[in-house]
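Appendix C reproduces, verbatim, an entry submitted by the partner laboratory led by Prof. M.T., so that reviewers can inspect both the input and the predicted structure.
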Amino acid sequence: MKSLVILATTLILSFSARADFKFVNVDQREIDEIFSELTSANTFTSISGAGGLGSLFGFELGLSWGQSEAGKIKELVKEAGGTYDGKLYHAGALGRVTVPLGITGEINYMPELEVDGAKLKMMGLAALINLNATVLSGWPVDIGVRAHYSSMDLKFDQVITSVNTKVSLKNKISGLQLLVSRNLIFAEPYAGIGYIQSKGDLSLVGNTFLVSAQQSASSKQSGSQWMVGSEFKLFIIKLGIEYGKILDDSRVSGKLSFYF
């Protein structure tokens, strides 16, 4: 749990641009750009291929982490006179369970954590079906289909035009992926393509001594993704690395886990 807290702290502090970028006079194009990059950061991944965890049963527990490009947010912060490294980070506790018929349930979860006045909660769920366990038995490579869903909830306070304002960013993402992988002795390289759609909501609630005012906006995103990666296996330990592109932004992810 301590490792997850450290990763989450890094993730929240990566959004320290909130101290420089104020959500004021933001048009719909800029809102769409913000949520496009948040979608790229928070789309589900288990850094794994199509093969599952065994022919009948299997379990995997570990941590995942990574970063994605946020060049558009960086530009908005720069226009506001601030500085930002242009990276968004993601992390979570990873769990996977394989049952007969090649079905694997997956979760990537971060409980609500508070760092530097910001509260962050993330969750991702997925179901992977290895078609080699049924209709494609005997194929030299594994073919899989993954349906996934993830959500992010980030809250923090800002002073906007001398008004104490509560900022809330919520993002929900769903999609489908088609994966191909080859299970070797010590590794399982894989590649995949997919389609995702997301909905983001921004809420601003300002409070003064006499009045409370609220503003809100939303953004919908849809498009393609692709990824390549590999799992490396040593006894009961797995290391994984994945690189891909989601919508318009690149992302790299990794994991350390135990499986049996």
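The beta strands are 58-69, 87-99, 103-115, 118-130, 142-160, 163-181, 187-207, 212-234, 237-246, 249-259. Additional entries are available on request from the coordinating office.
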